[in-house]
Amino acid sequence: MIIQLPQNYSLQLVSDILQNDTQIQFEEIKVEECRESFQTFIKNTKQQIYGFNTLLGFKMPNPIKDLQNYETQQLQELFQCIPSDPPQFVNEDLCKITLFILINNLVNCSGVSLNTLKQLQQHFNNKTHLQLPSINFNTQYYDASLNWAILSTLKNISEYDAIIITFTKSLSFATLLYNTYRSFKCIKMAFITTSISFEATNGVICAFTQLVNEVKQHQGQIEVAQELYNLLTLNDEESDLNLSLKTITHNILQDAYSTRCIPQVIGASLDSIKFIINTIQSQQIGQRAYQFLYQTNSNHIQDIIYNQLNNNETELLLLDYLAIAVSEIGAITERRIQRLMNPQLTKLQDYYDQYLRDDQSLFGFQQLANQASNLIQKNKKYCHPVSADSMPQTTHLEDINNNFEDSILKMQHIINNTIQILAIDMFLSSRIIQKLEAKEGKLIHTKLNNIVQQILPIQTTNQVTQWLEQFIQL
After folding, report:
1. How far apart are CA 280 and CA 314, in angstroms?
2. Which InterPro entries does this one have (predicted)?
3. Which CATH code fits 2-168?
């Protein structure tokens, strides 16, 4: 697949970037023209320029002419840093997206040389893995550690190119984009796992009907309910499982909260994730290093605008929203798992010993329920808002940027934990359905039975997690 730069950001673009055969291209002539204009402007201008890092918000005291006008010490730290031993590499997917964003931004009239951009393009196309500096690397910006990894791979790079790359915020936006993509996949995973779990617990399907879920006019709730209803029904009739289990369950009006309110909870998460997607697409967060207004006929640059975010507050706030939204998907799933495993609460008390027995384990499948509970407790801690961690004693230091590493790590944990909880739910529910089918006959219609049959041979929840990641495509 060939992606022509520049591109506007979207989840579909993230999906394309992560394809194994993805290559990028850009128009070299435009890059060279922009570079020539940039050099002419820097040589001749006498005006002061906002740009890069303005420290306390003041204008740069002098035009851009050499490294002395910038944080020379920080740049020297970047170039002198020794890679960690053992090596610490950037997550492969996050590395690809970060490189793509950096190149996409720089192609957009940044003044970076064609040589530098072609080297970056080669790194992306060859899937170069970036090695981070030591964890003791002391920099005001976490982005800079990744920029160091990029700069350390480039040859014959000019001081201006080094400046532009160093102060371009690519990792922060890449983290937001990548985790929004993975979070949306979590929603898709929840549709499948929730449907199978619903069948295993013999849920009352009327809770997902259109009439019930359009009362509040919450768009996410309506969409989730409709998706679940479509998965659970065949030709607008109740699923085979709901019909066949009538003889062994109580005829109740509604299910417990963790079952009947799935559209409300996952729908709210979907609304939050869509808000973030719309913000990314409408505001084009992270676009371009800076922008020229250039008059071709007079060969004169009217202005130069540094259009990168000087800190990561926007990304941090959106990542905090994202963390809570994804954690809630896992939370309601964990509640349903615990209810399923409790003989006092399940609607299938008479079958409890038969469908929960695991001959391979002393504690049966209860250990998986305990694992899900532990994971959701961890997610609650990770949901602490990093964007709120501003400390007055940091004075002029931008602690928001210092804390960005926490957002990267917490989103990685929350999404991985949530997928693991969904996998536990699917693992247990598939085996419950198998046990019940042995006594009651065929209980589930073809749309979901095909998925159950793929899950049953899998022996561990970690393998189910990997299967889910591969199965769900956006």
Report:
1. 10
2. Aromatic_Lyase (IPR001106)
3. 1.10.275.10
